[in-house]
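Hi there,

I know you've been waiting on this one. I reran it after we fixed the sequence typo, so this is the corrected version. Both the input and the resulting structure follow.
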Amino acid sequence: MTLIAAADTLPGAKHWSMTLARNSRLKLTDLEGGANVGMLFFNPINLLERYNTPDTLKCQHTFKLTQGHCLYSDMGRIFCSIVADDFGWHDTVCGNSTKGSVAARWGASSYQADRNDRYQNGRDSFLIEAAKYGLGRRDLPANVNWFSKVTVANDGALALDVGAAKAGASVELRFEMDTLVLLHTCPHPLDASPSFPRKPVRYEIFDGPPASMDDPNRLSAAENGRGFENNRLYQFGCCEGMH
């Protein structure tokens, strides 16, 4: 039986952050279908180390993220692995919605006028959370968008596949090193819903065993084996005995 350390439901257009320990799990569930969870990763010991989209994709020869993939830092280490996924295609190339893009699509909104019902955007949500750790605009790399499938047309145009949304879809991450996680539940930048979407997402945090030597994520790409080895050396040299 899995002992859940923390669990809650985040409404749409909200933001949060937390530090997850090595070997912990984070499970996200799209309760209604059509949710988007923007997420960024940082090394809490050295905040200059953060999520790297290009390395994550090129190391594993992929455009999408799904089970078996690892998410890399810009130091060649692995923040987390996707160990379970019944959605199957998560975006990490389209970035964030902004105040301007949200206003252009759904109209102007402000805290003064709408309070907690304002139309929040992904970029400002990340900045609010980042500021809690002394981070700012220059520190925001490209992010992951969980539960958002983005397709590419022959002419290179990107489109959000709204037909891929399904209620109850979940993705589970295993953290391979201590990781500061910033997240929001704001709309995907390509979302063209007629009204501002507010889709809730449930999160669950729990412990689990470390990756074995024959772990599927370790073996799914040659570079992943090297990434896990970089993590091992880092933990041995810098972090062993801190937990």
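Quick highlight: DSSP finds six helices and twelve strands in the chain.

Best,
R. S.
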